[in-house]
């Protein structure tokens, strides 16, 4: 049995790289319209660029899916609201939220 997300709208925070990217691509492959949210900050939390989110959106569209990019930060109310607002503006609603955003500064297991 294949799980389908046809007709569903998904937000994936941290969707520009790593597991978030994998989630966004798989949701799109299974039919979801995807909002790829990625602040694009560096590993120390500074900076910001929508390039990673834009690249994932381009990959989804190249495969025949529907997606938009959003660069809002989930760390503040206005940024989080912009993610939802963009989803509703583009696709009318939100059905799925995968909160994958985060910056791991210390990657050791012992800490």
Oligomer: single chain
Please give the number of β-strands. 4
Order of helices and strands: EHEHEHE
**Overall pLDDT confidence:** 89
Quick summary:
It contains three helices and four strands. By secondary structure, the chain is of the alpha/beta class. It has a single domain (1-11, 22-43, 55-102), classed as NAD(P)-binding Rossmann-like Domain (Rossmann fold, 3-Layer(aba) Sandwich), CATH 3.40.50.720.
Keywords:
alpha/beta; 3 helices; Rossmann fold; four-stranded parallel sheet; 111 residues; globular; 16% strand
Overview of this protein structure:
With 111 residues, the chain is α/β, with parallel strands linked by helices. It has a single domain, classed as NAD(P)-binding Rossmann-like Domain (Rossmann fold), CATH 3.40.50.720. Helix content is 35%, strand content 16%. The protein has three helices and four strands, in the order E-H-E-H-E-H-E. Strands 3-2-1-4 form a four-stranded parallel beta sheet, sandwiched between helices. It is globular. The termini are far apart.
How is the secondary structure organized here?
Elements: E1 9-13, H1 18-29, E2 33-37, H2 51-62, E3 67-70, H3 77-91, E4 96-99
Parallel strand pairs: 1-2, 1-4, 2-3
């Amino acid at each position: 049995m294949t799980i389908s997300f046809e007709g569903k709208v998904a937000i994936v925070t941290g969707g520009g790289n790593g597991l978030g990217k994998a989630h966004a691509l798989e949701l799109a492959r299974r039919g979801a319209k995807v909002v790829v949210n990625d602040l694009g900050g560096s590993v120390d939390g500074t900076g910001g660029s929508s390039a990673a989110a834009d690249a994932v959106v381009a990959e989804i569209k190249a495969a025949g899916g529907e997606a938009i990019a959003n660069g809002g930060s989930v760390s503040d109310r206005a940024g989080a609201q912009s993610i939802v607002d963009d989803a509703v503006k583009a696709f009318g609603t939100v059905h799925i939220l995968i909160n994958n955003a985060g910056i791991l500064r210390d990657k050791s297991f012992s800490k």
